[in-house]
Amino acid sequence: MQLEITVESLSADRAVDRLAREGIRVYAARRPRKNAVVLRIDAKDREKVFAIFKGTCYNVCEVASVGVKRRLDGLVRSIGLAVGFVLFFAGILFAEGRVLGLEVVGSGAYYEREVREILARGGVRKFSPQPRDIAPLTAEILSLPRVEFCAFHRRGGTLTVEVNVSDDSAPLARVPLLSPATGVVDELVVVRGTPRVAEGEEVTEGQELVSCESAAGENVLPVLVIARVTVAYPVSREYEGEEAAARAQATLDFGVFREIHMSKTERGWLVEGIALKTASVNLA
């Protein structure tokens, strides 16, 4: 028996990973909106899931029965249907022991190459056992740009991965990630692509930080880079007027400051500090 639970949080897409670390199996996940994710779990894990999210930034706001539980609610009305369901389910279990075929369907089917790579890293390939824990695979597929729904379906020996995206009209950019400023790499997040630098390294503006080449250097078919970088760089600029106005203008000019120091000058205020500039490719 399965349930669908709706989890709301500013980091709702990380809920799958949180449950996976606690040993909770997630059968499917979809993102109806930016700050929410709907997860399909075993009904027996309901209390454990509530305990895991209690006291955290995750809010479980909806619970609904789905799948096998919903079918069983109807099957109790008919002995014949119940027997047929049991026989049908037993046949599926017998046939689904191995992956005899793999399909990627849905509006995000153009991610087939990336999905197959994710599955292969998880040990899922032709003739391998059917995956028992799909939570890590689901989480990685959901991290692909614009993917809002991912579900695994098994029929016979065929494993079908359904991937839907929010907007499949605009082409994805297969370009490298370049440094937005000259400074030090403060944070580097690489979902896909080959990193050329590490956090703490000095970089120059326009330098290639994550390349489209695979780890083996195969650049005939560029891989899709999914990455984000934040570079910390020193700033120093004098502003006329009052201190509050100088600080406000510096924020408009440079964005987020990690460190900021204000010094009074004859003309106004000297703003010095460390600013942060972020750039990304196919990753919000």
Task: For the structure shown, list the relevant keywords.
284 residues, 5-stranded antiparallel β-sheet, 7-stranded mixed β-sheet, 15 strands, alpha+beta
Low-confidence stretches: none
Q: Report mean pLDDT, rounded to a whole number.
A: 82
| Number of E-type strands | 15
How do the helices and strands follow one another from N- to C-terminus? EHEEHEHHEHHEEEEEEEEHEE
Rg, please? 25 Å
Q: In which range does the helix fraction lie?
A: 25-40%
| Main beta-sheet annotation | 7 strands, mixed
Structural class: alpha+beta
CA-CA gap between termini: 36 Å
- Strand order across the biggest sheet? 4-1-3-2-6-7-5
Number of helices: 7
Shape: elongated
Strand residue content: 35-45%
What is the secondary structure topology, with strand pairs?
Layout: E1 2-8, H1 15-21, E2 26-33, E3 36-42, H2 46-53, E4 59-66, H3 67-75, H4 79-95, E5 101-105, H5 112-121, H6 135-142, E6 147-155, E7 158-165, E8 177-178, E9 183-192, E10 194-195, E11 202-203, E12 208-211, E13 226-240, H7 243-254, E14 256-264, E15 268-281
Parallel strand pairs: 5-7
Antiparallel strand pairs: 1-3, 1-4, 2-3, 2-6, 6-7, 8-12, 9-11, 9-13, 10-12, 13-15, 14-15
